[in-house]
């Protein structure tokens, strides 16, 4: 879907209004700050490669965000919010030019108390974790990009990650406590959302307000050991992953299963994984290692390596081989590879086994186990040997015909990459906070098609 609006022509009056703020007008820098990791998708590459903003603004506080919002409304200039730009669907690529609002200078932690932190959106997740850990609490879940990704970008465009095996996904009630957002009304203002209202702006790709502060629930800190377990049979690896994820007495943060030949893309791990073997990458509390050993024995797995939390904190971490880092490593070896994101419908693994045999290594299975409504389920971030868009769509359609739910990463439209349904509450909120449709235009189907709803 493309938008018909044209990009703004003369930004000088807007620049004058923003005098004193941190502005970037250099075309090369603007071009860089207009891109994200949509390049994982051969479908999105040609659609987004030439999209750039016209000006980057880097606010340092909420008052400056209000000032930028007011100027953009006054001159009807689009505004696209950006964290670290690690989104992988083109979420922060501006389709109609305008202002890129880079939030990375708003990176303060306002307070941390047991189980909860109040932070600014541009804070990097690794930095947040480091500071909250000093108080005995850590981030509940983080994307595998946590070293660079911001907390605002995770809430605006992410879904879940390392920690989701215990805490579920961002959309699960209780994983986001409150947000403050700046609106794009004629007189921009700050609104605080709490309770279920937070979902009006969470995972909205910055189309429903500019998040300026968040209250993020935390988890107790554990020393996380890292373990690679290998198996000669993929379905045994998958069953082990599910059993571990459902073992309530074992405290874990990551259960990631990769079918052969995916481990061959992990250059730094290859010596620990025999040729042709399937692996499960784990982050598990050190105190759970002993019972983990019993479970590994029960499933006939072999420990490829085991590191204490302290050893794991130096050098390689398995976190950066999981979630979409698996895709990143595969693509760094073979850039023709792409990926899918799938939630499997049940926990008996029958469909998984069918898909594994049906597609063989055209669709290589990479599993991330998640907690969904109280029990573990596998999600798949399959690594796909891409041939044509038509074939990719056939693969998607086949999964859907069997009851698997695809979160399509080959579209930049919010709803199409997510639950597919129009969210009327989200649309009503947008009509209030962004009546001119200036926030990240072209991304929300509900807004584009509102006259027909
Ligand atoms: C290798 C790789 C691995 C990844 N792994 C994961 C993973 O494990 N889990 C996962 O969920 N995602 C993953 N992603 C996607 C992405 O890294 C994460 O979602 C990350 O949290 C995005 O943070 P960011 O700061 O880069 O956000 P950006 O990409 O800058 O922004 C993401 C979206 O949020 C909006 N946004 C940013 N800041 C604000 C704000 N203050 N107010 C309103 N909207 C805002 C932007 O407009 C954009 O639409 C991965 C991507 C890559 C390339």
TrEMBL record:
Gene3D superfamilies: 3.30.465.10
Gene Ontology BP term (one): lactate catabolic process
FAD-binding PCMH-type domain span: 49-221
GO molecular function, one term: D-lactate dehydrogenase (cytochrome) activity
Top-rank taxon: Bacteria
SUPFAM superfamilies xref list: FAD-binding/transporter-associated domain-like
Entry-linked PANTHER family: D-2-HYDROXYGLUTARATE DEHYDROGENASE, D-LACTATE DEHYDROGENASE
Protein's recorded name: FAD-binding oxidoreductase
Organism: Phormidesmis priestleyi ULC007
């Amino acid at each position: 879907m493309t938008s018909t609006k044209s990009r703004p022509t003369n930004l000088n009056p807007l620049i004058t209004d923003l005098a004193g703020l941190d502005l970037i007008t250099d075309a090369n820098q603007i071009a860089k700050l207009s891109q994200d990791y949509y390049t994982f998708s051969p479908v999105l590459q040609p659609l987004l490669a030439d999209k750039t903003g016209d000006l980057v603004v880097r606010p340092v506080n909420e008052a400056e965000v209000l000032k930028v919002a007011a100027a953009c409304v006054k001159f009807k200039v689009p505004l696209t919010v950006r964290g670290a730009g690690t989104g992988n669907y083109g979420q922060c690529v501006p389709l109609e030019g305008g202002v890129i609002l880079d939030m990375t200078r708003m990176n303060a932690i306002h307070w941390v108390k047991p189980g909860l932190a109040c932070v600014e959106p541009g804070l990097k997740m690794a930095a947040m974790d480091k500071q909250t850990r000093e108080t005995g609490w850590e981030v509940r879940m983080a994307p595998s990009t946590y070293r660079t990704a911001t907390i605002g970008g995770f809430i605006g465009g992410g879904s879940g990650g390392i920690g989701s095996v215990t805490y579920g996904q961002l959309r699960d009630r209780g994983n986001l406590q409150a947000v403050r957002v700046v609106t794009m009304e004629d007189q921009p203002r700050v609104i605080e959302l709490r309770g279920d209202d937070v979902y009006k702006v969470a995972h909205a790709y910055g189309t429903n307000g500019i998040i300026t502060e968040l209250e993020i629930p935390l988890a107790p800190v554990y020393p996380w050991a890292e373990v690679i377990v290998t198996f000669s049979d993929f379905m045994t690896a998958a069953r082990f992953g599910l059993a571990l994820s459902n073992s309530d007495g074992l405290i874990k943060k990551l259960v990631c299963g990769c079918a052969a030949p995916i481990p061959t893309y992990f250059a730094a791990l290859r010596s620990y994984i025999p040729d042709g073997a399937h692996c499960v990458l784990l982050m598990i509390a050190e105190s759970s290692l002993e019972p983990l050993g019993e479970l590994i024995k029960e499933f006939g797995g072999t420990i490829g390596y085991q590191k204490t939390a302290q050893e794991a904190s130096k050098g390689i971490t398995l976190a950066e081989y999981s979630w979409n880092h698996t895709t990143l490593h595969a693509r760094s070896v073979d850039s023709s590879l792409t990926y899918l994101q799938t939630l499997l419908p049940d926990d008996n693994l029958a469909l998984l086994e069918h898909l594994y045999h049906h597609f063989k290594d055209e669709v290589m299975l990479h599993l991330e186990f998640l907690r969904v409504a109280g029990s573990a389920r596998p999600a798949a971030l399959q690594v796909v040997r891409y041939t044509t868009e038509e074939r990719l769509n056939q693969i998607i359609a086949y999964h859907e015909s069997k009851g698997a739910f695809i979160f399509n990463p080959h579209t930049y439209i919010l709803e199409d990459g997510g639950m597919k349904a129009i969210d009327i509450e989200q649309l009503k909120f947008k009509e209030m906070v962004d009546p001119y449709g200036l926030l990240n235009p072209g991304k929300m189907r509900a807004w584009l098609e509102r006259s027909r709803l």
